[in-house]
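Render this sequence as a predicted structure.
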Amino acid sequence: MSLNQGEEVRYDIYFKWGILTPRAGEARITFNNSSLNGQPASLYRLLFNTVGIFESVFKMRDTLDCYYNRDNVLLYSPKRTDEGGYYLIDELTFTYAGERTSVHSYRLTPTDVRIDTNLIVTSGHVFDMLGATFFLRTLDWKNIKPGDSFPFTVAIGRDLVQASYRYQNQAIIERNNVKYRTHYFIIDIYDDAFTQTKAAAELWIGDDENQIPIKIRTKLKIGYAEVHYKGSSNLKAPLNCRVELKK
């Protein structure tokens, strides 16, 4: 499956501690024509910023980019982070030789280079964090069945984190008097930043041709974060997974 050029999807982000669930941020994901090193490319971009009280507690402005060739192969992934005046640039450059993937990881601050190393994966899919969601959206789901697993590796700094999507079943989720038909996945992430290795996160993907994330829940060491679909434009097809309820 391919995404529609010009697509934009918007999200609200909440953090939950106990009974509190404040709105913490908003995100926008776009997909557009672009170029990389003088060659045609597609750009999958995530823009994130904090809102409300989080602006004064821990202000964040993040931009994550994924550049793909016309075959949806990930080539380059820069992340620009601004966290309350702390600036950081992470660049991942992907090269391929058969089943082997080489990832050049380069991290730069305003004062020095923190990381400049090559990560090698001998087989399987390798992405950055944003590219992992693109991977799931572009899978062919015609023959998917409960229990199917889709393993992948995420390159982060000096680390290669093993993860997988595990398909559970179809599910209906409801928010603000709207129901969505979705495909429900559990995400296994093998990393100390999460509370457990299995079911570290959950993901609900709209059950229509667009296959956009409708809801994401990520377990953290304290509480968890939730991402909720807010709106979209220029989708490839009508958002048929949405079912509005009568008030």
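Summary. The mean pLDDT is 92. The chain has one domain: 7-244.
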